[in-house]
Amino acid sequence: MALPVAGSGDVQDQFWPLPKFYFSVDIGDFQDLPFQEVSGLDVETEVIEYRHGNSPNHGTIKMPGLMKYGDVTLKKGVFADDNQFFDWISQINLNTYTRLTVVIRLLDETATERMTWTLTNAFPQKVTPTDMNSQSSEAGIETIVFSHEGMVQSV
């Protein structure tokens, strides 16, 4: 990990966190899809607690267990004649759905990918169309949630 180093202003300018608003998403063969928000890139290790029968300690030993990956939620605006989310989830019939690779890239100000998350064996779990409210002037946003079997992060 690169840490800021004392020095002149031009040296310090190299050490700024990446903005989170510039990203791209690929789903299967569809490249650079326009999403408003991506969330749920969670990785968690289950904790196994164990205490053997003749332990003199009055507590448990904690060991790492299986990795768990969160479901990834993607949100985008609703457009006329765009039914892609519903088409994806409608193709699911038990376990016969062709799994997808989902690639999420965080970009810097020059559109260079700086971090990448690749979801393996992903499939749409849930699609939520926009809510409708006659007293609001907001854009319609639809949501798709992908479950997956693993995630690789690369820098």
UniProtKB/TrEMBL annotation:
Any Pfam family hit: Phage_T4_gp19
InterPro entries referenced in this protein's UniProt entry, alphabetically: CHP02241, Phage_T4_Gp19
Name of the featured protein: Phage tail protein
